[in-house]
Amino acid sequence: MKEDLKANIGDYLPLRDVVFHTLRQAILKGELEPGERLMEIQLAQNLGVSRTPVREAIRKLELEGLVIMIPRKGAEVASITEKSLRDVLEVRKVLEELAAELACKRMTEEGFLELEEQLSAFEEEAKGDDLTKIAEMDVAFHDIIYKYTCNDKLVQMLNNLREQMYRYRVEYIKEKGKRSTLVAEHIEIVECIKRRDAEAAKLAVHRHIENQESTISQKIKGE
User: Fold this and answer.
1) Distance, first Cα to last Cα, the chain
2) 78: which DSSP letter?
3) How many CA atoms lie within 13 A of 121 on its CB side?
4) Dist. CA 34–CA 78, nearest whole Å
């Protein structure tokens, strides 16, 4: 358990929600690792709260599949399984391919500029070692594509997957060698969208996600 874990989401949320979001982010970022036990008393002390909001947060995390309850042991951080990986990325693949297709049709010149600027920012950040910043830059890159689909429902659906995808993003970029692959894939996606070649863009996005799934799947198997 990380002793420096802090509840710092903000005073505008009920305390139980602050604790929930704090623990959720800690799991997604790997600060609380798969298999790590979640001790209510220790968490409450570290977060400076009572046990009640911690207990409520753990129940919500269980519903999201981020925490599992073990008989006679209590709560622990859920491991990343091949099924959970496949379930999330199958949905992501379909939605992102549609997003790429619509972006090819609807992105403006201003959008192309935004996308290229974000690509450069991601490429620069990928040279560093801050996994959180690299992941955030990756998210920001894809967010621009979503934005220029001009489809609010699609953006909402993709945003609903954001937190679940974040866990896999971080796992993928832990390998430094994969970051240059990400950059190359992002460049290909940008070039396809700029050409307004929807089929090529969809194929590039498909390969982009397939590569992540394959790499993380191998990690899960210990290969």
Assistant:
1) 27
2) P
3) 16
4) 5
pLDDT for 98: 98
Global pTM reads: 0.79
Yes or no: say if 167 and 28 are a contact pair by the CB < 8 Å rule: yes
pLDDT, tens digit, 9 for 90 and up, residues 46-91: 999 999 999 999 999 988 778 999 998 899 998 888 998 999 999 9
The residue assigned the tokens 């799991």 is 27
Residue for token digits 């621009």? Answer: 144
Taking only the tens place, the pLDDT of each residue in 102-152 is 999 999 999 999 999 999 999 999 999 888 899 999 999 999 999 999 999
- Other CB atoms within 10 A of residue 102 CB: 19
CB of 31 within 8 A of CB of 2? yes
Residues contacting residue 37 through CB under 8 Å, at least 6 positions apart:
1, 73, 74, 75, 76
- C-alpha atoms less than 13 angstroms from C-alpha of 167 in its C-beta half-sphere: 25
Q: How far apart are CA 171 and CA 24, in angstroms?
A: 16
Hey, what amino acid is at 2? Answer: K
